[in-house]
Amino acid sequence: MPTGFPPARTRCPRKVPPLTMPLALLALAVVTFGIGTTEFATMGLLPQIADGVGVSVPHAGNLVSAYALGVVVGAPLLTGIGARVPHKRLLLLLTGLFVVGNTASALAPNFGLLFAARFLAGLPHGALFGVGAVVASRLVAPDRAARAVSRIFLGLTIANIVGVPAGTALGQHLGWRYAYCAVAVIGLVALLALALLVPHQPRGPQAGIRQELRAMGNRQVFIGLATAVVGFGGFFAVYSYLVPMLTHLTGISDASTTWVLALYGVGMTVGTLLAGPLTDRALRPTLYAGIVLLGAALVTFYFTVHSTVPALVTVTFIGAMGALITTPVQMLLMINAKDAPTMAAASNHSAFNMANAAGAWLGGLVISAGWGWAAPNLVGAVLAAAGLGLAVTGGLMDRGDRPSKVITGQGITESESESEPESGRSAAVAPVLPEADRG
Q1: CATH 1.20.1250.20 spans which residues of the chain?
Q2: Which of 54, 158, 229, 373 has the fewest CB atoms within 10 Å, i.e. is most exposed?
Q3: What is the pLDDT of residue 405?
Q4: Which residue blocks in 240-282 are alpha helix, DSSP H?
Q5: Comparing C-alpha atoms, which of 228, 208, 333 is closest to residue 279?
Q6: Who contacts 423 (Cβ-Cβ below 8 Å, separation ≥6)?
Q7: Residue-level pLDDT at 207
Q8: Bridge partners of residue 406, in order along the sequence
């Protein structure tokens, strides 16, 4: 099967000892672990936060929206501002902002300042994931780039198993402020790990906001982002109402839902582990299969939600399929953004948060219309089908085009590398979309 990768002589020799590579990826995973913990722990602590700042629980729920708004705004804004900043330095600055945002959340004396602090904490979220994905793809051989990117997503999935339950328990027993303090400490650990373990990666001479914006104008990038918003909207239509589904229809007690959510996180972890090697081998087929299986799982959950064991199995599978889609979407955006992938990679997480908002809204509409607590599953399946349609459309439009490249070194294209073989300048070219995988 043709790989579609450039000739071996265009690849960048490793500039760091091989043993440091997994540790550098671990440092990036620590960052995403902190992000996942702070994003989702808030949902479990809304009653405590509401009591602490003197507002109702529904009003406190706006804090979740504040964080999501920060992600949507911050991903393109901060990657644009930092378009010429070396990636390691940018990672350190963004992680520092993450620590400041969570420290401010812990110290906020009233709801208004807490709302502002949660918005601030959300600003670096997408940019950290986007820059981290580009950095991760440069730390390994081109044919393992998706595996490297999937490893940083592991931090997010493990946060759902360990970080969120632990943060929720800490906030419930000691006070919600302690949960944000703990996340700030995780951020400091990540900051130290990044400083020690991630190698310096200079930007190319052409790097800048204009180049990043030009890459965002690529129609395949637009379709990829639309696929993320619509396809993941189906995922979030169900995730947003998973707890009331389990308590009202499955008969699981409120006290047990935390463990079910951890099981959901286990599924996400398994899906993330599968996503890396599958995406490296066949990007578009992995994306298509993941969306199809996600839609099928959502339809299945509509029927299995009334029985405990089938419901738990289906929930785990939904988590796995949702996570399976994440890596191919991320890689597809980076590939089609060519030599300016950072803003596209970061904007993917803006798209995820838009999907979160849209999915929750549509799921709430059918519940309010009296269709029942299981109805969001059908909404999710429809959205997954629409996402599949967008993904296939992108694949059909991509047929016949020359393979795209992501330049993950110092901005040298393949043709430049071939014309200056003795120049000493080197670049690692991340995976090219295999010709066999197109469409």
Answers
A1: 16-203, 206-412+425-439
A2: 54
A3: 44
A4: 242-245, 257-281
A5: 333
A6: none
A7: 57
A8: 430
Confidence band of 311 (pLDDT split at 50, 70, 90): very high
Token pair, residue 40, equals 């989702």
Give me the residues paired with residue 430 across strands: 406
Show the tokens assigned to 287: 């994306």
Q: Label residue 89 left, alpha or beta by phi (over 0 means left) and psi (-120 to 50 means alpha).
A: alpha
Q: How far is CA 242 from CA 50, 52, 60, in A?
A: 22, 26, 20
Residue 136 neighbours by CB under 8 Å, 6+ apart: 25, 28, 145, 148, 149, 151, 152
342-368 vs 219-239: helix crossing angle, rounded to 10: 40
Using CA atoms, how far apart are residues 315 and 304, in angstroms rounded to an integer?
A: 10
Tell me the per-residue pLDDT of 191-213, one tens digit each, with 9 for 90 and over: 999 999 988 877 655 556 676 76
**For 231-280, how does the pLDDT look when each residue is reduced to its tens digit (9 = 90+)?**
988 888 888 788 888 888 999 887 787 788 788 889 999 999 999 999 99
The predicted pLDDT at position 283 comes to 93
Pick the CATH number of 206-412+425-439 from 3.40.47.10, 3.40.50.300, 1.20.1250.20, 1.10.1740.10: 1.20.1250.20
How far apart CA 423 and CA 416 sit, in angstroms, is 10
Pick from 117, 151, 97: nearest CA to 275: 151
Q: How far apart are CA 78 and CA 291, in angstroms?
A: 30
Cβ contact 27:190 at 8 Å: yes
In this prediction the pTM is 0.77
Phi–psi pair at 429, nearest 5 degrees: -95, 120
Structure tokens given for 349:
């997480």
Nearest to 171 by CA among 81, 21, 63: 63
Res. 408: pLDDT tops 70: no
The rounded distance, in Å, linking the Cα atoms of 375 and 245 is 10
Helices and strands (DSSP H and E) totals, the chain: 18, 2
Residue showing tokens 């909404």: 379
Q: Are 382 and 391 in contact, with CB atoms under 8 Å apart?
A: no
Contact 275, 327 (CB under 8 A): yes
At 417, the pLDDT band (50, 70, 90 cuts) reads very low
Tell me the mean pLDDT in the region 323-330: 92
- Which amino acid type is present at position 343? M
Topology of domain 16-203 in CATH is Growth Hormone; Chain: A; (1.20.1250)
